[in-house]
Amino acid sequence: MDVFKAIQDRREITSFESKPIPDEVLEQVVDAGLFAPTGNNLPSKNLIVVQDRVMLDKLAETTPYMKWLTEAQAGIVVTGKPNVSKYWLQDASFACAFIWLEAVELGLGSAFGAVYHSEDAEESQKREGYVRNLINIPDEQRIVAVLGLGFPATTPKPKKHVPREEVVFYEKFGKSGK
Length: 178
Hints:
The protein is α+β, with helices and mostly antiparallel strands and 178 residues long. It is built from 5 helices and 4 strands, in the order ααβαβαβαβ.
C-alpha cells in the first residue's frame, strides 16, 4: 500500500477484534511515530505504549469518548514537551498522524482520543491529570492524545468529504482551479 492509499483508506475504528497485535507489527507502528518530523529535529515528544488490559480499561475512562479503548489491544499515549520546543503540539500531532497511517498500512485500525483540550484549560487539566497519574508522566509534559490500536472488528464506510473546491484554493483564498 502506498501512503496516499493509506490516507484514503483511513477510518476511525472503534470496534476491535480480541486478536493480539504481533510485537513486530506494533513496534513498526511505534517507529512511525518515532520517526515523525519535529520542529528543528528536537526531541519534543514521547510515546508510551500500553498493552496491559487493566491499564487500557482505565485509560478508556479519560473522557466519555474513549470507551473503544476497552476493546483495543494496545494504546499509544503521545505527549509533547513544551520545555523542549515551542512546536510540541505540532510535533506530537505529526506523530499521531504517522502512527495512524502506519497502522492502516499494516492492517490495523486506530482511534484517536483527544486528551489535550486547547479551548478548555480546565477540561484539559482534568484529562491530562488523569492520564498523567495513571502512567507516571512528568508534570512538564502535555498529554496530547491516546491512540487505540487493534485489528478492526468492522470497517466503517467512507465518509463523504467536503467538496474539494470548498477547501482547496490556488494563489489566493477563494480562488478555485488553476
